[in-house]
Amino acid sequence: MAVMAIRKRYLFVGAVAAIGVALLLTREAGQTDYAASIAEWRTGRLQRLTAADGWLTVAGLFWLKEGENRAGAGPGNDIVLPPGSAPDKVGVFTFHDGRATFSADPAATVTAAGRPVTTLALKDDAAGPADLLSVNSLTMFVIKRGDRHAIRLRDTNRPERRRFSGLTYFPIDPKYRVVATWVPYDPPKPIPIPNILGETENLPCPGYAQFTLEGREMRIEPVIEEPGDKELFVIFRDPTSDDEAYGSGRFLYAPMPEKGKIVLDFNKAYNPPCAFTPYATCPLPPQQNWLPVRIEAGEKRYGSH
To answer: What does the pLDDT average to over 202-222?
Structure first.
């Protein structure tokens, strides 16, 4: 009986040990899979940032005035293109009643959608992709911000793109993948979102996420950028902005809430475009999204920004 009891005890202990090892391996595998998913996300982030239409190519922002706005690399233009990147005279953007029309200079080769342009009424980015004008390595298009319109310039040969030194991150930490309680607003409420231009835009906020981190209970209000979006946009700031992260705050996208929960993965927090170009019009975190604890996850500040 004693031998049988001891044998059963060892069998039980062995089974428990095997289960423990299996759970440990499963947990480690889960952590490895999670780390791999974040690494994959970082690869995609880097590709988007350094792409020909990424933020590292944004080389200028020129606010349109009523009437004629002349563009070219030569002196005396309203829209001054980088030296040597284009002819001295490229063309004229005529702006009237919120609409811009481009007329190319006869000596310049300007294309849109791969076709030569002489005169073209331009669609801005307010309701979808803007019309793109191309000259050598340059792309120009109209953006609308509040009641103002501007020409945004991209240059695939921008020195800042060629000298880009890569991104740095806080260590991946699963504790910063937060499953928060979702409290909806019915109906969604508009909240004011300021930007670096000193303007404010009201964006719909469908609710708030409530969670506990580092022993502190807090909430955050995401917004919907565009009607029909499948993700929520989170603009937040935390004390890491004082030293290691970007000073104005960071961005994060979250999947739509399900069954009263929403996932905020701060390991996917990233710097706004203003960290890479002075010609972006970045939104700033509303005061209620200033978190009281350090979020040591996601992207750190780039260079001296």
So the answer is: 97
